[in-house]
Fold this sequence. Notes:
- It is a single chain.
- It contains 10 helices and 5 strands, in the order H-H-E-E-H-H-H-E-H-H-E-E-H-H-H.
- It has 241 residues and is mainly alpha-helical.
- The chain has a domain at 100-157.
- The radius of gyration is 20 Å and the shape is globular.
- The protein has helices at residues 12-19, 23-31, 50-64, 69-77, 85-96, 108-115, 121-129, 144-153, 160-194, 200-238, and strands at residues 39-40, 46-47, 104-106, 133-136, 139-142.
- Strand 1 and strand 2 (46-47) form a beta hairpin.
- Helix content is 64%, strand content 6%.
- The strands form 2 sheets. The protein has a 3-stranded antiparallel sheet. The protein has a two-stranded antiparallel ribbon with strand order 1-2.
Amino acid sequence: MTTRAPEPTLTVDELASRAGVTVRTVRFYSTRGLLPPPVIGPRRVGHYGPEHLSRLALIEELQHQGMTLSAIERYLDALPDDLNAHDLAIHRALVATWAPDSAEEVSREELEKRAGRPLPEEDLHRLAAMDVIAASGGGFRVDPALLRLGVALLDVPISHGTILAARRVMLEHARATAQELTRLFRDDVWGPFTEGEDDPERVESMRALSAHMQPMVVQALVTAFQRSLKEELRAAFATGD
C-alpha cells in the first residue's frame, strides 16, 4: 500500500522559521527554481510541505560545503524527480558527513523546537538508538545533520533492533565504498597530479577539487543506492519472498 505524502500545511513564514532562514531567502530560492512552487490554498495563500523543508536543509548543507548557487542548481537538477522528503533528508545527511563534526549541546526544549514536535521518552530512546542524539548533562548532544531524518523515521514502525542492524549494515558497506573510492582518488588522480611536483599551490588546488567533488560523489552514491533498493524491493515482493 502506498503511503500518501503529508499535505502541505506550512505558510511561507512557518517554513522559513522551521528551516532557520528568512522569508526573503525562501522567495529567492523559489525564483531560482531551487524550490518547487507552493500549493495554493484558500485566499490565494501558498502552503509548503515536508519536501520544501527537506530541500531547504539540503541547499543549506550544500552551501556549507562551499558550493555556489549555480553548482547547487546543477546538483538539484540531477536528482530524480520522484524524491520525497525522506529521500532528500538522506541526501542531506550523507552530504553532511563530509563536514567536520557539528554536534551541538541543546536543551530538551530546544531539541523539540528543532524537531518541530514534542518528543516523549520513547522517541528520545529511538533517536539515541540512531545516534542522532545523546544525553549530555541536563540536555542533549544532537547531530543537526541527522535530526530531520531521525525525526522522520520516528513515525516508521521499525523496532530498535532493526534500526541498529540496518545502521550496522550501512556503516560497514559505506566504509568499504569510502576506502575504495579514496584508493582510486589517491592512486589515479592525486598521485599523477602531484608526482614530481613540490608546488604548494598545486597541492592546495587539488585539495579544493577534492572538497568540491565530495558532494557530487555522495549524490551519485545515494542515487545509485535508491535505485538499487527500489529494484530489490520490487523483485522481492513481486515474487513473494
